[in-house]
Amino acid sequence: MPDSFKSLKEVFDKEPRLKGLKNIINAYSVVADFHIIFPEFNKMVVPVKVEKKRLFLTVENSIWRNELKFKEKEIIEKINNHFKIEIIKWIKFIS
């Protein structure tokens, strides 16, 4: 393979013009992988979207919303550790 070829990962990581696309892919990945990262939340929480590093989660009821609010920092850390970059800074809980 010639030296001039680059992997897609290299292109996405090093090309500044693709930063917006990379952010969209990362945001989609958080929503898609949420129940893989947190299988215990499968029936109570539905990931909706990521917007400006804020994850929107629909929560089954206010009791779970309050419980998850106490664990917000842990949830954020676990997501960011899973992807090895800071994707999420805040969580917005919706009931």
Give your account of this protein's structure:
It contains four helices and three strands. It is of the alpha+beta class and 95 residues long. The chain has one domain: GMP Synthetase, Chain A, domain 3. It has a three-stranded mixed sheet with strand order 1-2-3. A hairpin with a 2-residue loop joins strand 1 and strand 2 (54-59). Helix 2 crosses helix 4. The relative contact order is 0.16.
Key terms:
alpha+beta; three-stranded mixed beta sheet; 3 strands; single chain; 95 residues; GMP Synthetase, Chain A, domain 3
Provide the fold topology:
Layout: H1 8-14, H2 19-37, E1 45-51, E2 54-59, H3 62-70, H4 72-83, E3 90-94
Parallel strand pairs: 2-3
Antiparallel strand pairs: 1-2
Helix pairs in contact: 2-4
Structure in a nutshell:
The chain has helices spanning 8-14, 19-37, 62-70, 72-83, and strands at residues 45-51, 54-59, 90-94. It is an alpha+beta fold. The protein has a single domain (8-94), classed as GMP Synthetase, Chain A, domain 3.
